[in-house]
Request: fold
Amino acid sequence: MRQKSGGSLQGLRRTNQERVLALLLADGPLHRAALARRAGVSRTTVSTIVSDLMARGLVVQSDEEPGDDHDGRARDLLSINPDAAAVVGMNHAFDGVWVHLGDLSGQRIAGRGTPLDPDCGPAERIAAGLGVLRELLDEHDLRTEQILGAGIGVPGPIDHTTGVVGVSLPGEPWSHVHVLEEFERALGLPVAVENNTRLEAVAEARWGAGRGVRNLLYVGLSNGIAAGLILDGRLYRGAIGAAGELGHLSVSIDGPPCRCGNRGCLVLHAGIPAVLAALRPVFGEGTGLDEVLSRTAAGDRAGEGVFSDVGTVVGQVLANLCNLLNPERVIVGGEIAQAGEALLGPLRTAVRRYALSPVRDVDVVPAELGLGGRVGALGGAALVLGETADLAASLNRFTVRRATT
Reply:
């Protein structure tokens, strides 16, 4: 009975610690009085818990101003120590990998990428990402044991019931790979895997153009076209994790054949290859997207016309999605979005024209966080902070090497 009683007390103490950590993670900084009230325990219990958490370096006094629920008898605000643990985001594109190392407040500790041969396989890609991560940890005197988890982005649809990447197009390097298992084995960490466009959506929702928006649609216009859906504040994946394959929605059933087996796919009308092909007769062979964007920004009529066509066809598709999903905001990212209003103006016009009246005034804005693997890696870190099943319990297993009191 004594062992049972001791075990019960220890379990209750751990439960109360995790309740306090969860409140500080979600709503902090808070005073002890507010913590006691929200946790449903006495102030004496909270003081004991806080003293232990501070001794372990998980909780610190905060310099922030008190909020509306300030209790005049409590002088010190408490918050999670952002340095108590680190989170990792790792984003794999076809030609490189980017690693983001952040703290518990979401602030960047470090980030770095490395190029990859597009023809290399999954083992080489994982090894490259792990190499960059080890470099960053060494440079900042961090150990793997201090990492709370890693959010990994890869191209392709990921079946979240199995952790295996499905096939959407021939030749994708991750097809049929059990990415969850492979990354957990390589990193030795808790891992979450996600399609990299959806990670861009998560990053924009937390730190970019989607801050404070609970229902948004992110569209990435690049060589391929994909979407990320944030519905009621959560990333929507679909039944098996394949939601968001926007580029292979057919906009012309009698259109040209696509590699996916469909005809008239959106990507054939609005992807980077389609833009370059449309302008090749005017701009010449070998003209790249950077030159196309530069000439369009300078007022080139041909460039403006092509981006207008792209914006119109994408806007027609998005109008249907707005009718279906009623997002509060649409965020447009990817390399093609760098065309700015030459693209976004016609896109907004098409949404207003083709969407039903209750939803046609949806806010359509450009992405804020930029381009490249860095954005997906940011989303990977955001995924760890936002979707770890029990973040407080995971954090409660840590003790900071140099405790802060």
In short: The chain has 13 helices and 14 strands. The mean pLDDT is 90. The first strand starts at residue 59 and ends at 62.
